[in-house]
Amino acid sequence: MASCAGNGKNTAPETPKAQVFVPAFNADSAYHYVASQLAFGPRVPNSAAHKECALWLEATLKRFTPDVIVQKARLRASDGTSLDARNIIASFNPENRSRILLCAHWDSRPWADHDPDPANRRKPVPGANDGASGVSVLLEIARQMSLHNPGIGADIILFDAEDYGDHEDVQRTNNDSWALGSQYWARNPHVPGYSARFGILLDMVGAAEPTFTMEGTSMYYAPDIMRKVWNTAHRLGYQHIFLNRKTGGLTDDHLYINEITGIPTIDIIDYNPDRPKGFFDQWHTVNDDLDIISAATLKAVGHTVLTVVYETK
Ligand code: AHN
Ligand code: ZN
Questions:
Q1: Which ligand approaches the C-alpha of residue 127 most closely?
Q2: To 5 degrees, how large is the angle CA 49–CA 50–CA 54?
Q3: Looking at the CA of 105, which ligand is closest?
Q4: Closest-CA residue to 179 (of 200, 203, 196)
Q5: What distance separates the 2 farthest-apart alpha carbons in the chain?
Q6: What is the pTM of this model?
Q7: Residue of the nearest CA to atom 6 in ligand 1?
Q8: Which of 44, 185, 226, 272 is the most exposed place for a label (fewest CB within 10 A)?
Q9: Which protein residues touch ligand 1 with a CB less than 6 Å away?
């Protein structure tokens, strides 16, 4: 094509990506990782299921890389409970100074305080979408990175105690009661002076018909990363779920990563202010279970994030 100079618009097409190899994200494998986590029962801090699942996550990640660190911490919940918490960290190409941070929370909420049945509101949440889904996508990405070296450095962090935030019944709720594991890690990184080019948090990435909107905290701290990830999703055909719509800021693990470490980090989170709760219907209910998980949604997110990782040079 001849030059388009002089048309006054000069809307050059986006620079085509150099063709790089991107491994295929296996959604059946990711789905299986959700089921494996749920089989322990709710992963509520201080419970046996929580301890057993932590050991399983550590052992699973060690199949994919020798560089796995379990960061143990005693964290104080805002209701006074002392939590035996563990952030689980797996590194790929640890010597590479150019790094990407991928993260999700692995704990389950101790109380289903948004359950329609008041009798359930002190029961734990199974945490299929809210917890296990993000972890499952990261475990499958870890498996792929063990099979095909991404070249760049990558750290997968599974944060604990994200979902111990104040119960709905608490009168003066404290936003900093959420995301205790990531607050701890951001102040005490597993490697002193740790840094990364950018971070991607996955939260509630497994329900059917999700809407990943452009969440406000991410847009405030990391608008370029947001655009890069959304552009990638659109190029791969997922524009129906990665919406070009800006929504209000949320308190989640990425808030503290951004505030405390300065690593620009986005949250891929199923959030839509048009819905009754904003989040998915079963959010913080006893019905956040395996039957609401969609392999197609795990695939859309996993394919997008894997592509971003392998295309980042
Ligand atoms: C609040 O509800 C304040 N933040 C949502 C963070 C969250 C809860 N992610 C999963 N569960
Ligand atoms: Zn939650």
A1: 2
A2: 115
A3: 1
A4: 203
A5: 70
A6: 0.94
A7: 252
A8: 272
A9: 130, 163, 165, 175, 178, 203, 250-252
Q: Looking up tokens 């959030």, which residue turns up? A: 271
Query: Which pair of tokens denotes residue 19?
Result: 């063709």
CATH number among 3.30.70.1130, 3.40.630.10, 3.90.550.10, 3.30.830.10, domain 27-311:
3.40.630.10
Give, for all 313 residues of the chain, the pLDDT tens digit. 344 433 444 454 555 566 899 999 999 999 999 999 999 999 999 999 999 999 999 999 999 999 999 999 999 999 999 999 999 999 999 999 999 999 999 999 999 999 999 999 999 999 999 999 999 999 999 999 999 999 999 999 999 999 999 999 998 888 999 999 999 999 999 999 999 999 999 999 999 999 999 999 999 999 999 999 999 999 999 999 999 999 999 999 999 999 999 999 999 999 999 999 999 999 999 999 999 999 999 999 999 999 999 999 8
Residue that has been written with the tokens 């779920």 in this structure = 241
